[in-house]
Amino acid sequence: MPTALLWFRRDLRLGDHPALLAARDAAGPDGDVLPVFVFDDRLWGPSGDPRRRFLLDCLAALDGDLGGALVLRSGDPAQVLPALVREVGATSVHVSADAGPYGRRRDDAVEQALGDVPFVRTGSPYAVTPGRVTKSDGTPFRVYSPFARAWRKHGWRAPASSPGGTRWRTGVRSEAAPPAPALDGITLPPAGEAAARAAWEGFRDERLLGYADGRDVPGGDGTSRLSAYLKYGCIHPRTLLADLAAAEQTESVRRYADELAWRDFYADVLWHRPESAREYLNPELQGMGYDSGPDAEALVAAWQTGHTGFPIVDAGMRQLLGEAYVHNRVRMIVASFLVKDLHQEWTLGARYFMQHLVDGDLASNNHGWQWVAGTGTDASPYYRVFNPVTQGKKFDPDGAYVKRWVPELRDLDPRYVHEPWTAPGGIPAGYPEPVVDHAHERQVALDRYARVRGR
Q1: Residue 81 and residue 7 in contact, taking contact as beta carbons nearer than 8 Å
Q2: Model confidence pLDDT, tens digit, residues 370-422
Q3: Is the separation of the CB atoms in 29 and 51 below 8 Å?
């Protein structure tokens, strides 16, 4: 009986899974499918503990859905997979295409190592596979808005059908997974496909209609919190977009689809410019000056631990350490503070986030940091400097978010929570003075931008 090998990566689900259907069809009615996950040190090693733990939990959930058939192996996929193919006599290997720089190189190496055994790429983790949406002349988009219009016009496939009739191969040796890291009190979301679908359905049915207004309020429950599930493919964006298409076309529905377009846009930028994961997309800003030395290091440490004296910044960084997640509006605020108030290179913040975020995604994270830093896809970003006080007052007016994550300020009147130094009794005990003068540092940042752009 033929065996098709299904190599899971960023598609840890059974529903809406085109590569699974391709593997089932390749195996035929008398064959079976061997589900495999490979712990690749090139990916496992750089991941922070929250992503490692969430991945292990997702794999455990997937194995349960497969009735215990998931085979785990460790090592270089270009060596592991050909050996496994020989071991089980597999006639084809099936994957969802990987659009990342390393993933593309790895898959090419695996395909070459497999020799005559077909390596079949079907689908991808995105609504539209990166590289498919281009300008009329075939060149890639550099700015989000025209990309989003073309993305919507291009459209996407309907969710894939249920994988009924799949016979999973059992009895193949599986290695032990790496030890689960201790998270020291970090609260992660429940893992796996069922949890992802429950999270989506709860948001869709209860909170989607208020998304346009609630999406920027970090103290509320206005977002879907699906980013970690999308990162690991516990749910596919097609599934979400199909439900959105069936809903009344309100501003909230459109805004949520826009967020999925942003995800596809950043993946598309990385597809065309793989070096932009770690290099400046806008090379003219490579000459920016950044601060260094013991004083700068102390300021970075204050930012990392949430002790800058700016409440909305500190709340965001403490949420990162407490939930391995930061609300999207607050991500922009804390990123701007590091780059433009503390004058640190965006790469430092991008690396720190990737170490601590459960939803850390190379394309979205690093290009989001470049957008804030003014080195990325925005058309005219150099003058944008987020004011942490005004941002806090606007998006957390009652101080609910700050008071949740900064207990030193819980007894303050909301009028003073974003400027505790103005409170009648002064700054509450245990909370620091602001580490910088925002107005001054804003001007320093603008002067540095002006100089580098004038060269």
Answers
A1: yes
A2: 999 988 887 666 678 999 999 999 999 999 999 999 999 999 999 999 999 99
A3: no
Q: Let me know how long the chain is.
A: 455
Do 206 and 258 share a domain, yes or no?
Answer: yes
Q: Name the 3-class secondary structure at 207.
A: coil
pLDDT of res. 171: 94
> What gap in Å lies between CA 328 and CA 325, rounded to an integer?
9
Report the relative pairing of strands 90-95 and 32-39 from DSSP bridges. Answer: unpaired
In a domain, 319, yes or no: yes
Whether 341 shows a pLDDT value over 70: the answer reads yes
Q: Are residues 289 and 421 in the same domain?
A: yes
Residue 398 resides in a domain: yes
322 and 428 share a domain? yes
Is residue 17 scored above 90 in pLDDT?
yes
> What's the rounded mean pLDDT across residues 429-434?
96
Over residues 71-118, the pLDDT tens digits come to 999 999 999 999 999 999 999 999 999 999 999 999 999 999 999 999
Q: How far is CA 301 from CA 1, 113, 321, in A?
A: 59, 45, 13
- Are residues 288 and 418 located together in one domain of the fold? yes
Domain count, the chain: 3
| Residues 266 and 303 placed together within one structural domain of the fold | no
Q: Which of 95, 124, 153 is the last residue of a domain?
A: 124
Taking the C-alpha atoms of residue 260 and residue 244, their distance in angstroms, rounded to an integer, is 11
Segment 41-63, tens digit of pLDDT: 999 999 999 999 999 999 999 99
Q: Domain span at residue 344?
A: 283-453
End of a domain among 272, 298, 325? 272
Say if 150 falls within a structural domain: no
Asked if 148 and 127 touch (Cβ cutoff 8 Å), the reply is no
CATH number where 324 lies: 1.10.579.10
Picking from 200, 181, 144, 145, the residue whose alpha carbon sits closest to that of residue 13 is 200
The tokens 């390393």 sit on which residue? 102
Question: Does the CA dihedral 250-253-258-259 come out positive or negative?
Answer: positive
